[in-house]
Amino acid sequence: MLCLCCSLWTVRGADEPVLNPSDANIVGHIIDKKSGEHLPYINVFLQGTTIGTVSDGTGHFYLKNLPEGKFTIVMKSVGYKTIEKEIVSKKGKTLEINFETEEDAVSLDGVVVSANRNETTRRLAPSLVNVLDTKVFDRANATSLADGLNFQPGVRVENNCQNCGFQQVRINGLEGPYTQILVDSRSIFSALTGVYGLEQIPANMIERVEVMRGGGSALFGSSAIAGTINIITKEPQRNSAQVAHSLTMIGGSRPDNNTTLNASMVTDDQKAGIYLFGQSRTRSAYDHDGDGFTEIGHLNAKTVGFRSYLKTSTYSKLTFEYHNISEFRRGGNNLDLPPHETDITEQTDHNINGGGLKFDLFSTDYKHRLNLYASSQHTKRQSYYGAGKDPNAYGHTTDLTFIGGAQYVYDWTNCLFMPAEFTGGMEYSHDNLEDVMVGYNRTLAQKVNIGSMFLQNEWKNARWSFLMGGRFDKHNLIDHLIFSPRANLRYNPTKDINLRLSYSSGFRAPQAFDEDLHITAVGGDVAIISISPDLKEEKSQSISASADFYQRFGAVQTNFLVEGFYTDLSDVFLLEEIGRDQQNNLLLERRNGKGARVMGINLEAKLAYEWMQIQAGGTLQRSRYKEPEKWSGDESLQPQKKMFRSPDVYGYVTSSFNPVKRLAVSLTGTYTGSMLMQHFAGYIPSDKEEKTPDFLDMSVKVAYDFPLFKSGTLQVNAGVQNIFDSYQSDFDKGGSRDAGYIYGPSLPRSVYVGCKIMY
Question: pTM for the whole thing?
Answer without folding.
Answer: 0.87
